[in-house]
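User: Okay, second chain of the day. Same drill as before: sequence in, structure tokens out.
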Amino acid sequence: MTRLNALLAPIAVFLAATPAFAEGAKLSNSDNLGMLAIGAALAIGLAALGGAMGQGRAAAAALEGIARNPSASGKVFTPFILGLALIESLVLMAFLVAAGFLGPIGK
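Assistant: Same drill. Structure tokens below.
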């Protein structure tokens, strides 16, 4: 009998609680805008984090190469600057995407 009570008690509790879930959630536009703001913040935050880490690693590799062979500094400098510009362009693209997410919020 105790096994039957242990089995039926949770079922009775769940069946008694179903009227509490009868009314559906009301969707408002402000919930969607909040998620857009969170998405924009995550997009620019992760892009800035990844860009900073990439630029740090690129600078470390370039400086290590120059330290090993100082005469190659002229050959290393141009690709280094080009790489930094490409990394930064990805961060700027993420900023534009985040700004696009924030467009509907201001209206």
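The domain at 28-102 is CATH 1.20.20.10 (F1FO ATP Synthase).

User: Thanks, on to the next one.
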